[in-house]
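In this supplementary section we document a worked example of the pipeline. Step one takes a protein sequence of length 284 as its only input; no multiple sequence alignment statistics are reported here. Step two produces a three-dimensional model, which step three serialises into structure tokens for compact storage. The input and output of this example are shown verbatim.
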Amino acid sequence: MANPGYGKRSAPGQLRRTAHDFTHLPPREASIAAYLDRLPDGADISVKTLAKHLPYGQCALRTALNRLQAAGHLRRGSEHVRGSGSARWVTRTWFSRTARDDVWWAAFTRGDVPEKEPEPEASRPRHPTRSRAFILLAALGRTAPALSLAYADCVALEPQVTEWFTRGATEPDILRALTAGLPTPVHSPAALVRSRLKSKLPPEPAPRPALRVLECGRCGAPGRPEALPGGTCGPCRGEPVRHRTALGPTEVRAHAAQARAAATRNPAPIHAGSGAVVKEEATP
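The serialised model returned by step three reads:
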């Protein structure tokens, strides 16, 4: 395993594991991809560590990882650690059993893909289970006996409570909103709960974009996703490097004029011969 916070990171939304996940790859790359797929998140998948456990040298492994990257199974980059209270960035290596194209990886960099893997049909429970919203409503009478609800009321109000959870509310938040300052007596518990769930509904949380930067798999240079097709930058693909051209005479004169205008608006202080700064003050 790598140090805490580093190592392999599984990409979200992957399909279920099958025996044909990597048949489109050459044998060596397919075996390495299958090995990486079965490693837990946080495992050290650096070339040096993989060479200790696989029958390939570091050069061969480096080439194979670059091919996995080109095939859409791997991306390297860095990510800001949320909740750390600092500008801490850590190196990331994201692996996806399901091959992804450049458009998907660009959306992942922006945080525009679901973070949770879809639940396979076969693994879903056959019998329905009660949601957090239903359980909260059914137990509401324990906190406030005047708000004891019938089964039908819990079923009808369940979508409204679910919306509260979707907007980031917790169980204590909802209980506080429903039970604070109750009138005496409560003539219709269901109507009162429905009214409060609607009138006190919190606003939708502001989206928090993911802070991720992809890097070239060969030279490690950071870049925008559209500049790294297949996870490789232009120079590593053999494209000519574009250098910024020098400013022309007209642009130089324009910048000089702006600098002179700024200096005129903010004149420099007058220095006395002794080196002290003499400031002119207006006479009241």
